[in-house]
Design goal:
By secondary structure, the chain is of the alpha+beta class. The chain has eight helices and eight strands. Strands 1-3-2-8-5-7-6-4 form an eight-stranded antiparallel barrel, surrounded by four helices. Strand 6 and strand 7 form a beta hairpin.
């Protein structure tokens, strides 16, 4: 019986070591990527197991709170999906890759990495982004008002090869108009690093009414026409995610 007990402990120890090794390899690969690229924008998706949602949101909120006061941080926000609350998104921007690396040394980041080992359905997925029409730190930290009923949308776009420049040009022309809308808080288009045909938009509105106004706004017509004909996997609405912010939840 004693021998069986020792064997069981050894097996469990080896299994735990294997999990730790795989996580360490994943983070090491990410750090190697950062060492070769001046990444300033990162979007991470987490799919959380049932029963861990509350704990994971708190750890993620703690990370956001720390990031916002860390040197070099431009913005940091955490959201869950309106239609699937177990799916969480972390969005962050930093002035340099060194600053992004520094946050990983904080106790909040270590707590997040530790919880990932047990709380996720599968490994988190990170997208490194290149912002088109970049915003300033002050613009990124602009918030909705207390009386607003904020609505946030991200849209993943996989453009047909050869049409991506037309897509960028179309957005370039429309972006000043979009950002001038009274109901828009933040509007950003970004390329996904490593794939020239993939993009993601981040759109923050003061209310659903503001979003509906945006959909009827004349300058959006060429964008919608492209999305309906120029994406690889129509309909483009499949790439749409409605988000609810839970950190930092600051308001004017």
């Amino acid at each position: 019986m004693k021998t069986k007990s020792v064997s069981s402990i050894i097996r469990k120890t080896l299994m735990f070591s294997a999990v730790v090794f795989m996580l360490a390899q994943s983070h090491a690969k990410e750090m190697k990527y950062l060492s070769n690229n001046e990444v300033i924008a990162k979007l991470t998706k987490y799919e959380v197991k049932a029963g861990y949602e509350k704990q994971f949101r708190q750890v993620l909120a703690d990370y956001v709170t720390q990031a916002l006061v860390q040197e070099g941080n431009i913005m940091s926000e955490a959201h869950y999906e309106q239609d699937k609350p177990s799916v969480l998104w972390l969005m962050e921007r930093w002035t340099s890759k060194e600053q992004l690396k520094d946050i990983t040394k904080s106790k909040q980041a270590k707590a997040l990495f530790s919880l990932e080992k047990t709380a996720l359905v599968k490994s988190s997925k990170s997208y490194y982004l290149k912002d088109l029409e970049p915003l300033t730190k002050e613009q990124w930290r602009k918030t909705a008002k207390k009386e607003d009923n904020q609505l946030i949308v991200i849209l993943f776009v996989d453009a047909k090869k050869g049409t991506q420049q037309y897509f960028k040009n179309t957005y370039h022309k429309a972006m000043p108009e979009f950002r001038s809308e009274p109901g828009v808080v933040t509007y950003q288009l970004s390329e996904i690093e490593g794939n020239e045909t993939q993009f993601v938009t981040y759109e923050k509105f003061r209310s659903n009414d503001a979003f509906q106004y945006h959909l009827r706004f004349p300058p959006i017509k060429p964008v919608i026409e492209y999305l309906e004909t120029g994406t690889q996997n129509p309909p483009f609405q499949n790439g749409l995610h409605n988000l609810i912010e839970f950190a930092p939840l600051t308001r004017e």
